[in-house]
Amino acid sequence: MSIDEKNQSIIVSGESGAGKTVSAKYAMRYFATVSGSASDTNIEEKVLASSPIMEAIGNAKTTRNDNSSRFGKYIQIGFDKRYRIIGANMRTYLLEKSRVVFQADDERNYHIFYQLCAAASLPEFEELSLTCAEDFFYTSQGGDTSIEGVDDAEDFEKTRQAFTLLEFIFRTSLCRDLRPEDEHLINFCQLLGVEHSQMQHWLCHRKLVTTSETYVKTMSLQQVVNARNALAKHIYAQLFDWIVGHINKALHTSLKQHSFIGVLDIYG
Question: Is 19 labelled as part of a ligand binding site?
Answer without folding.
Answer: yes
